[in-house]
Input
Amino acid sequence: MKPLRCAGTFAAGFESAVRRVLREDLPESGDVRLASGFVRFSLSGAPERALELSCFNNVFAVFREWDTSSLPFRAMVRKTGGEEEFSRVWSAVAPRGARSFRVRFSASNRFVPVDKDVGADAERLLAARTGLSVDRVKPDIEFWYLTRSEGGSWLAARLPSTDDEPEPRAGELSRGIARLLVASAAIPSGSRALVDPF
Output
């Protein structure tokens, strides 16, 4: 089976920790490309493996990528890609029982508005490829067209989280940040505890 291209977003500044997490917890990940708060990697196993890492804010399955960030969203929609490749990725990541989706456009980590015809074209194309209906309020899955300032653009599906952890209380670290701090500490194997003096 061809590896799945994935991407994840995380708190900026933890790039080396994310590399360590991928190496230790997802050793089959390959082709790791890191940028500030963003990583692209390949995954041979089930996409749920990436969701289990808990260090990402978002995990994406990548359908199409471009080496430039200057491509307009209109052009990205037109270049969504061949049906065969799209179907291969979609069959690997489609949530069970999913019936609806929405499309989001993100430039340099911010959601941005697009012309109505661009959004409508993206919705029509993705509805035809997936068989899902558009729900702009509470969809089962989101498709993002996104560009990053350091270079690169993607069409990706944001994978629904399987984590039912409650929101952290005031002063409490999220599980993701805690995981990245532990990875940053580079605790030797065999150590039994990490003490936080605060």
The chain has a mean pLDDT of 88.
